[in-house]
Amino acid sequence: ACGGAVAAYLYVWGDDFFALAAFLTSWHARSVLFGLPLTAERFQSLNGYQGCTVPHHGFECPRVHFLQVPSAEEFRTQHVLPRWPVVIETGDRFRSMGWKTDQWDADYMLAHTGDLNVTIELKRTNEEFGLQSRKATMALSEFFGTVWSAQQADPEEQHYINLQGERGMMAPPLSRITRDFSVPHFLMASPLRQINLWMGRADEIAGAASSLHFDDDDNIYAVIQGHKEVHLYSPDDGFRLSMTPSVDRITSAGRANFNELHSSLLGIGHPNFSPFSPNKTDALRQFPEAATAHCMVCRVSPGQMLFIPAGWWHHVRSFGRSIAINFWASPPAAAELLPGADRAHCRAHTRGNGA
């Protein structure tokens, strides 16, 4: 019987049999078979992150005016390479950047995109978009006629248009209104990967949240309407945020590599998400390590952009009617980054912020 099992594995795995054998003797296999969590020691052994970190819990997000970012090279030096988030303000809802997104009301959007169907995320008011949401198709005319005007049949159901994952650089309806915006000049030194549209409506006080997660690309998140509150954690806090044990390596830029076989065996469909939510009052009882994580709080209003480096954990809460677009760009290569021991640049930005 044992020989038959081995023969069966050889037949199924073929050339990958020895890779499977190596996996079964690894720490990954032990964590799968025995349900072991990601330990602090293992996390430190695989954590190669070399960028800035949050100096203390509750640190306020740094801010800079749009006119103080004169070149793509300077922005890359000050924020992209050291992996340091920042809110970029315009003070005029992006008009000084030549944008016309302040005209994006329901009538304008319906006139230009109302005939389209889009994929939306659905959730209950006590849930979070991401891990707990489901997807459906809705006509944009219906979205603006019901969700946007708060006329949907079930007020406990929240809807969110999220075009990420669509094929190509930019998907409709955003591709129909490209004359209203442009790629920010300070992002020109980074290879652009995708531009996405985000739209939803939430209570002005309670808001609606997206699950804590990180992305593989650098992100410029521009708020057109509504207000956002973003909790940010550096890649160094992955262990404290209950990161999945299928992680293989965290690169110097903060991106995480995962063992796909491990993720599959554990049934992890979204390894870049955390089960911890800074929004839930009882979360620390279930995830006590999160209490030691350092959170940076960023409040982003219309006419402001937030730079989120790849690998940085973020939990986003939206208030009121919200529209945002984001620009995803490839993170820098390891050779371009600041040396791991040289974080004076990061510390310089903490002055006057309670550090």
What brief labels describe this structure?
twelve-stranded mixed β-sheet; 27% strand; alpha+beta; disordered N terminus; 14 strands; globular; 10 helices; 355 residues; two-stranded antiparallel sheet
List the helices and strands and how they pair.
Blueprint lengths: L1 H12 L3 H8 L2 H8 L5 H7 L12 E2 L2 E3 L6 H9 L5 E4 L16 H8 L3 E8 L9 E6 H8 L9 E6 L29 E10 L6 E6 L4 E16 L13 E4 L5 E3 L1 H7 L16 H4 L9 E5 L3 E5 L4 E17 L14 H5 L7
Parallel strand pairs: 1-12, 2-3
Antiparallel strand pairs: 3-13, 4-5, 4-6, 6-7, 7-14, 8-14, 9-12, 9-13, 9-14, 10-11
Give a description of the structure.
The chain is of the alpha+beta class and 355 residues long. Strands 1, 2, 3, 4, 5, 6, 7, 8, 9, 12, 13 and 14 form a twelve-stranded mixed sheet that branches. Strands 10-11 form a two-stranded antiparallel ribbon. Strand 2, helix 5 and strand 3 form a beta-alpha-beta unit. The termini are far apart.
